[in-house]
Amino acid sequence: MSEIVVKDLSFGYDENLVLEDINLEYNKNDFLTIIGPNGGGKSTFLKIMLGLITPKQGSIEIYGKKPQDVSSILGYVPQFIPINENFPISVLDVVLMGKIDKKKFGFYTKECKEDALEALKLVGMEACAKRRISELSGGQRQRVYIARALCSDAKILLLDEPTASIDTQGQIEIYDLLKEINKNGKGIIVISHDVNISINYATKVGHINKKLVMHEIDIEKKDNFFNHLREEHTHICDVELILRECSCKNY
Question: What is the rounded CA–CA span in Å between residue 123 and residue 105?
Answer without folding.
Answer: 29
